[in-house]
From TrEMBL:
It comes from the Bacteria. This is Large-conductance mechanosensitive channel. Channel that opens in response to stretch forces in the membrane lipid bilayer. May participate in the regulation of osmotic pressure changes within the cell. GO terms for cellular component: plasma membrane. The chain crosses the membrane at residues 12-33, 40-61, 81-106. The lineage of its organism: Bacteria, Pseudomonadati, Bacteroidota, Sphingobacteriia, Sphingobacteriales. It is a multi-pass membrane protein. The keyword Methyltransferase does not apply. Signal peptide: none annotated. It is found in: Cell membrane; Membrane. InterPro entries: MS_channel (IPR001185), MSC/AndL (IPR037673), MscL_channel (IPR036019). The keyword Magnesium does not apply. One of its GO terms (molecular function) is mechanosensitive monoatomic ion channel activity.
Amino acid sequence: MGFVKEFKEFAVKGSVMDLAIGVIIGGAFGKIIDSIVNDLIMPLISAVIGSVDFSNMYVVLKGTVTQGLALADAKKVPGAVVFAYGNFITVALNFFLLALAVFMLVKAINAMKRKQEAAPAAPAAPTKEEILLTEIRDVLKAK
């Protein structure tokens, strides 16, 4: 029973739960970034470049592949060596946007923390001892 109890204490610690929540939120955030890249940014870039789909962008290094063939089909051609750079562009753009979004989030959180730290703390109410000592001081000054 000691192992189960020890594991339970470990699993419900705040840092482990925070990590789990962070991983779940991170996964969802990654899907949002993927959608931004694939559904919003890539079509704009493709319109400029002229290609509709980055995932099918490749260069044939060896062999003969019919022009305009999908990447999956080009890889199946016997003897063909295909340098598939389109998927890398998509993944690199996803990473860049995710890193940018996380940076902006951390920057906003740090700004809020700085603002909170800069705000002066409300003066604490004097304790009964301080009030009594102040009264004694004032009485002694008056004499």
